[in-house]
Sequence to fold (635 residues):
Amino acid sequence: MASAALLLSLFSAAPAANAERPPATGSLQGAFDAAADRYGVPRSVLLAVSYLQSRWDGHGGAPSVTGGYGPMHLTDARTALASAPHHSHGTEDARGDSARAVKDGAGTPVPEPSPLPPRLRTLERAAALSGHSPERLRTGTAANIEGGAALLAAAQRELGHPAGADPGAWYGAVARYSGADDTATAMTYANDVYDVIRSGERRTTDSGQLVVLPADPDVVPDISQAAALGLRTADTARTECPPTVACEWIPAPYEEFGDGDYGNHDKADRPVSQAVDYIVIHDTEATWDVTLKLVRDPRYVSWHYSLRSSDGHIAQHVPLKDVGWHAGNWYVNAKSVGLEHEGFLVAPDAWYTEAMYRTSARLVRYLAKRYGVPLDRQHILGHDNVPGPTGTAVRGMHTDPGPYWDWAHYFRLLGRPLTPSAGPHSAVVTIRPAYTAHRPEYTGCVTAGQACAPHGSGAVRLRTEPRDDAPLVRDVGLRPGGEASTTGVNDTGARASTGQRYAVAERRGEWTAIWYLGQKAWFHNPPARPTAIGARARLVTPREGLAEIPVYGRAYPEASAYPAGVPVQAVSPLPYTLPAGQRYVTGGRTPGEYYFAPGFDTAGHRVVRGQEEYHRIQFGHRVAFVKASDVRVLD
Fold:
């Protein structure tokens, strides 16, 4: 699958060999001070803008997903990304409904990208303003910071404001730095910058340096400066977003185009008809421009929201009451909201901006509150955590956002930081490696079998024995022949991810074993550098008298629940079993439901509910379902 996501040279290699070494400890703070002095930018403004872009990380000279470099995210995206959009490769049926024809994006022509907007070409202007070469701005940390300061100072002059020491008088320049083309997004970005100034920040960066921004709770930004930016007003008439983000309505079409085919989502009446239980995090595997063109194609597939990496701008495409075709599992689609983030799983050098993480977290908090969705990893899912609906679908399921999405940071922004809820010898653990320092080797990011560039990761690798040279555990759904899993970046067969909770099977020295896909799986968990923390959870295990129980990828009702005219959907188990004696964390009971939406005309749509209930469990890297009648619950 990685080979299908073609990347051009901007993202296809590790940082340049001549990239400047990280400054000596303590000098990064000095670089901000020197740049602020040279260009007359308040230190707090320069530091806060950089924090919102990169959290002060340099990423070793590697670009972000939108071609931004260094702590100031100076963009140089002239080398565009090749087109392998998220839903246009692999074999996953985005709709995930075996009762209907497969619906994916494989046959949809990928549109040509539009000319690059100014927000993706800030590095060349920074070079003209600062006198540094483009190469120096890409690879030199101090030069990069000076380039960003030069852009802020130029924006302040162009808006007719003096280069004073009052941080609040720089609101317009900060809003312009976002590169947004609409007023709401520019102001949301600037408001976030001033929130950082008010609260202050303190962080050790990826180069091992401590940077401190003292809190300035009394700063008062002059928001009236936004009127002079001359930006457009986005269409927000039908958006369903919190007031703290900038959201635009760019609808996905609901159109019929012959032979009973239509697109690109299904009408529904949620939450009246069905509860929304899940929020699914995706990455686009395409640029912002191409992503919007595709979701507006009725022959493509759909999701509810897209989020732009450079500034966190949000576009809504499908009303929340309706069902998007995004997760590859119809049961999950019918009960979820899908968020696509501009990004590329197999570009590990590429990174997401803090601006996008923050707006995404605010949107998820809003959705979770609106629908009562618990803020945990059995309800806030990556696409790579969604189970295959049937055994034959397991191998084709997508794997984004992958091991480089920073779930720990994301949950801090959600207001639910992943902290211990039990002692170090608890019966349950939450996976929680230190993202930046935890760098397991992955392969296949650019070339099959070749090592990816080192990068922080929120996932731990699982082995059959408590030693580093033991084989990885097996996933019989992905490899029916019984072969061991691999270190491939798209191979989820031996991977546990940050925030996921598992029952402890055994401990031996610095190793911990968990129950995983019906087997005992070991990961390195040394006390000095733990990769998991103690947790509390309710567990399920097969009820007495059952040697093993089936595991399902969807929670469909029993056959007798289907009324006349609605075809019975098979309750088909996945190619796994849950043996007696093993325990798995449950995310709660859920009723058996099936949303019958056979076509464009909504008159025949209906929800089928039965008496059968299920437990959603963390079974492997993906969640799964077991029948409540098959298990007993352990506190």
Remarks:
- The two ends are 40 Å apart (CA to CA).
- The longest helix spans residues 141-158.
- Confidence is low (pLDDT under 50) at residues 1-25, 79-83.
